[in-house]
Amino acid sequence: MPDHHDYTTSWVGFSSYTLEVVFLICIRCKEPLPDGALYCPACGKKQAQTASTTKARKRANGMGTVYKLKGKRKRPWVAARKGVIVGYYSTKTEALEALAAIQGERLSDWYNITLEEVFEHWKAQAWPELAEKSQEMYSGAWKKLSPLASRKMREIRTADYQEIIDGLDGKSRSLKNQVRVICSQLCKWAQANDIIPRNYAEGLNVGKSTTKEKQIFTAEERKIIETAAKTDPVARIVMILIYSGMRINELFSVRKTDVHLDRQTPHMIGGEKTDAGRDRTIPIALPILAHVRALMQEPGEYLVSNTQGGKKSYHNFREREYYPLLERLELPKRTLHTTRHTFASMMVEAGARPEDLQKIMGHADYSVTANIYNHANAEQLTRAIRLLG
């Protein structure tokens, strides 16, 4: 630029750098000139060709850079550091301030990763270690986080997660807790990879627990299922669940080598979920002994095998076989876990000892059995109160 101008300067300070702003002034009257002015608005004097009105001192290595994208954009200014884009801004000053705000922070390669991308990375690591039922639980909970999916992980805070949970008002506390759990898992993964400084899912409130009476199959409904089981293979599986107290995935995991029908007390070895539940002895009750014998004669490695002889899918069985069975039998739609509730209720009514019921159902603490699965009816309560005299 030709040396035909006078200049005046001022200094603008930020947290970790200083910007020198250089103002052009009129060569005649010394009044400040607008950016790019060819004539002085005060005296009308023609000026020499102008260059940029600002010059920024070069920032130290590692402080980042600011540049402007071509074209008409709402936020054309880019702040970047060590190859990581910090963000896009409307003005250069905003971009510089953004760089200043993160000086001293370590930028992860995933600085701008979204919540959805975090979920995919976490899923790739976690899925092989999870049971099919847990995978379904996490997948369902993830869908509830869809409003946050495209947000940058580093920008999401506790209030954002809490808003999602609060939006589930009217849903079960169990669902809310599942969402809380997956939020925590994603935050832990992001924290371990230096994307966020702490777990923002800690302290999420899922509300007070409301104890609901668990549903069971009544004696009349059990009779309908028992009759159907003589010819219907799906009803046969439901009968085994009702009279064994097994979880559905536990039954589908039993191999034929785990079934012992030639013992004095026919039983299966199976179970999952807790240490108390794994590899436990599950007696085969007389009402289902014939059904178990029949399944042992069918092809496949598992007691209940799929059409290829492999492990049966919980999800497919529930949607394609169990619910249609209830509809065919004109029974109320109930969860598969209702069979386990029903077993506990039948055992309590028959006078089973708490410690025996605890072992058969695979609970580490009988209070779980007593508080969740004991469905005492009015007749049971009457008998109990009469014990007092």
CATH-derived architecture of the largest domain = Orthogonal Bundle
Major sheet description = 3 strands, antiparallel
CATH class of the largest domain: Mainly Alpha
What is the number of independent domains? 4
CATH superfamily of the largest domain: Intergrase catalytic core
- By CATH, the topology of the largest domain is hpI Integrase, Chain A
Low-confidence segments? 7-22, 50-56, 273-277, 365-389
Quaternary state, please? Answer: single chain
Shape descriptor reads rod-shaped
The run of helices and strands is EEEEEHHHHHHHHEEEHHHHHH
Q: Over the alpha carbons, how many angstroms does the gyration radius reach?
A: 35 Å
Distance between the first and last residues' Cα: 109 Å
What is the helix content? 25-40%
Indicate the proportion of strand residues: 5-15%
Physical arrangement of strands within the biggest beta sheet: 3-4-5
Mean pLDDT: 78
Task: Kindly name the structural category.
Answer: alpha+beta
The total of helices stands at 14
Number of strands: 8
Compact overview of the structure:
With 389 residues, the protein is of the alpha+beta class.
Kindly describe this structure:
- The protein has 389 residues and is α+β, with helices and mostly antiparallel strands.
- The protein has 4 domains: 1-57, no CATH class; 60-107; 115-192; 219-386, Intergrase catalytic core (hpI Integrase, Chain A, Orthogonal Bundle), CATH 1.10.443.10.
- Helices cover 40% and strands 11% of the residues.
- The strands form 3 sheets. A 3-stranded antiparallel sheet has the order 3-4-5, covered by helices on one side.
- A hairpin with a 4-residue loop joins strand 1 and strand 2.
- Helix 7 (233-244) packs across helix 9.
- The radius of gyration is 35 Å and the shape is rod-shaped.
- 24% of the residues are buried.
- Residues 7-22, 50-56, 273-277 and 365-389 have low confidence and may be disordered.
